[in-house]
Amino acid sequence: SRETCVVRRGVTNTPLQALVLWNDEQFVEAARALAQRTLAGPEGRTDDERAAAMFRRATGRPPTAPESAAIGRTLDAFRARFEGAPDDAAALLAVGEAPLPDGMDPAALAAWTMVANAILSLDETIVRD
To answer: Residues 115, 74: contact at Cβ < 8 Å?
Structure first.
């Protein structure tokens, strides 16, 4: 009868939700903005410090050791991919309307964008318990 109200969203990850979180222009642009902020911010200069700051900003807590290791492996894989395919990095960074910052390495920014996209797609990030 549609007369029910749910105040709290349950933890879910449907294929459609995953598709939107990974591919929608707004989410990709939000991930790029988070990556830009992380790379330009004062939170740290090493990859581990930056990854921890990004994760903490999105989830409100520091990453565990296994999470940090997974983020590091993911960053390394995306960095290698985009360094070998600069056109792919440029295509990813062209998504959205926000201007690109001057002086940032496109391959590094694209790699961090993909890491940010993964972090922003976590159930822990999108569902408030």
So the answer is: yes
pLDDT at 124: 84
Cα–Cα distance between 86 and 129 in angstroms, integer?
40
The whole-number pLDDT of residue 42 equals 83
Nearest to 90 by CA among 77, 76, 104: 104
pLDDT, tens digit, 9 for 90 and up, residues 38-71: 999 887 789 999 999 999 999 999 999 999 999 9
In the prediction, which pLDDT does 22 show?
73
Rg for the chain, CA atoms, rounded: 16
Integer Cα distance of 129 and 123 in angstroms = 10
Which three-class secondary structure state does DSSP give residue 72?
helix
Q: Please compute the mean of the pLDDT values over residues 82-105 and round it to a whole number.
A: 93
Distance separating alpha carbons of residues 58 and 37, to the nearest angstrom: 12
| Contact between 34 and 116 (Cβ < 8 Å) | yes
- 111, burial (CB in 10 Å: exposed 0-12, middle 13-18, buried 19+): buried
